Please model this.
Amino acid sequence: EKDEVILLDLWASMFGMRARVALAEKGIPYEDKEEDLKNKSQLLLEMNPIHKKIPVLIHNGKPICESSIIVQYIDDVWNDRAPLFPVDAYAKARARFWVDFIDKKLYQTARPLFTTKGEEHEAARIEFVDILKLLEGELGDKPYFGGESFGYLDISLITFYPWFKVYETYGKLDFENEVPKLIAWAKRCIENKESVSNTLPDSAKVVAFVQGWRKNLGFE
Ligand SMILES: N[C@@H](CCC(=O)N[C@@H](CSO)C(=O)NCC(=O)O)C(=O)O
Model:
């Protein structure tokens, strides 16, 4: 019988976007349910009682939590098309290492770019660029992190791209200058992969979202 696939999501979330891109890569129809994180739905609280965070994939009533785990689950279940992982175990392990690095470092280091000032802000600027440079090093001269094909690590990082304008605007950074090969990769993903261009929001919309959020918190 037909799979029932629901995604508890938030349009601006780079983590929710990961699940959307993976589902689009596989061509899986799903219901996208937008959450209001200030007023979490009963469904979210039931489906992710531990972290109470989005995204949550609900597949035939069963919840899968944590975006990197959701992407791997999607690849495992719908394994007859558009593989998201290399076959080679070492290449897989390397991809998982860098997604773990992104989840440990990138989100935490990005936030102070638009929530702090002074020395803290200056330190965040330097650290953030260093992290992007390490990722650019891992990409090297390959078209995608997965080599010739767009895969798990590409999905995990490209969903930060709609936030890059926010990071550049408030972080006073110019990524074209700092990590040109990484920006070229991001543009390649958007130009060549409909699963990306059809699911990522406009960076202008994310900037407006952050502006509103900062105003509410009295930053502006
Ligand atoms: N490690 C997790 C992070 C999800 C997350 O931060 N979700 C946020 C919204 S996006 O920033 C969230 O749901 N926050 C709700 C809350 O913290 O109350 C993942 O990769 O899925």
User: Anything to note?
Assistant: The radius of gyration is 17 Å. The pocket of S-Hydroxy-Glutathione is lined by residues 10, 13, 15, 37, 52-55, 66-67 (CB under 6 Å). The longest strand covers residues 5-9.
